[in-house]
Amino acid sequence: MEKIERLKRELVYKGAIIDVYKDYVKIPNGNIAEWDYIGHKGAAAVLPVNEEGKIIMVRQYRNALNRETIEIPAGGLNSIDEPTKDAAARELEEETGYRSENITYLISVVTTVAFCDEKIDIYLAKDLVKTQQNLDEDEFVEVEEYELDELCDMIFKGQIVDSKTVSAILAYKAICGQKG
């Protein structure tokens, strides 16, 4: 494959969560293409599993889809230097009202490789301790519990489509399968 070369990147919009750029790229046929690029500071997510083996999920409205979704707790990093494990622990408590001292790395995903560099490190949380939800002013989140097989069925029925959530659930199922 011939080399593709980025010639220039121009900032089009600077936002609170993302920055939007126009990239000028020399493609193998010699032409210059304009590609959109979204820069993201990164995020962390957590798959919380309670003592009964149920997975704690959050239901919330997502404006991009104009509907509610069922997801694992997640959020952006407060800074590019924030350890993702710390962010995952923070989001766990903020969104679900649980905390854990038993948080281990599960998997990483890059959500939309065609135009965005958002990387989410996903963790597994066990030994949950009930605290209190501490939502941001613009967050409205319902906490729900599900069996692993129930969530897998929801994925394959198209009811759960969020990439970080799908990846986390299927990775966790694969780990559970290795133990049995």
Walk me through what this model shows:
It is a single chain. The chain is α+β, with helices and mostly antiparallel strands and 180 residues long. It has helices at residues 84-96, 148-156, 163-179, and strands at 5-14, 18-26, 32-40, 43-48, 55-62, 67-71, 74-76, 98-99, 102-110, 119-126, 129-130, 141-146. A four-stranded mixed beta sheet has the order 7-4-10-9, sandwiched between helices. Helix 2 (148-156) packs across helix 3.
Q: SSE layout and pairings?
A:
Layout: E1 5-14, E2 18-26, E3 32-40, E4 43-48, E5 55-62, E6 67-71, E7 74-76, H1 84-96, E8 98-99, E9 102-110, E10 119-126, E11 129-130, E12 141-146, H2 148-156, H3 163-179
Parallel strand pairs: 4-10
Antiparallel strand pairs: 1-2, 2-3, 4-7, 5-6, 5-12, 8-11, 9-10
Helix pairs in contact: 2-3
